[in-house]
Amino acid sequence: MPMLAGKVEMSIENIEKQENPMVAAESAPSPRLLSTHLTYDFMPESVKQGKCKVVVILRNPKSVVTSLHVLNDVPEYYKVVPTIDQTIDAMLTDAQDQLIYGSWFNHVSKWWLNKDKLKGNIHFIFYEDMKKNMGEVIKGLAKFLNKSIPDDHIDKMAEHLQFEQMLKNPKTGKAFENIKVTDETMDLMETDAYKASHMRKGVIDDWKTKMTAAQSKRIDAFYGPRLEKIGLKFQYE
């Protein structure tokens, strides 16, 4: 989401204060588990050539809009807090410069359209499937990773990974409270917004509480044809 009426606090000076995560990543013993928000274009060539296993987690665009809107509802971060319409405007574009990680569709479609180049070493997980049947998602991931997991272990894992259980876990449910803010110009941890739970409702269709029918139709009209063209379908409830 662009800074609508304020200044960007993530200056070069502040970024240079951060530790380079690649140093730790490169020195970690194999097999390594790394996570990123970056899109396909920014992956190392070895990833694009299918030399490692990649798991891509996708979520429907209406829920993504809702999540981004709630995340940006921090008065201390914007002189004018973005409205849901402004968030939708930033999402419904093919331009890459409206959102920090590029547009949602470009991000998702790049992984989807290049999946064959990874030679079977890419696995897609949909958030909505995790909500509806976590056990089956775990089985699919285990198969992709060539792991054999007993059914009773899968049941325990599925229970442990339920949203309600993660909400109780301070390492996940209170993630914002555990963040170390390094920006000397602004301490978001002192705001009410970031004292709230990092995890909210954990449902598929919470977008219905944040956007109107007209806004929902805007998203359908923009993304519908694009998703259909590449053969990608999402669940919205």
From TrEMBL:
<dbReference type="InterPro" id="IPR027417">
    <property type="entry name" value="P-loop_NTPase"/>
</dbReference>
<dbReference type="InterPro" id="IPR000863">
    <property type="entry name" value="Sulfotransferase_dom"/>
</dbReference>
<dbReference type="Pfam" id="PF00685">
    <property type="entry name" value="Sulfotransfer_1"/>
</dbReference>
<comment type="similarity">
    <text>Belongs to the sulfotransferase 1 family.</text>
</comment>
<keyword id="KW-0808">Transferase</keyword>
<dbReference type="GO" id="GO:0008146">
    <property type="term" value="F:sulfotransferase activity"/>
</dbReference>
<protein>
    <submittedName>
        <fullName>Uncharacterized protein</fullName>
    </submittedName>
</protein>
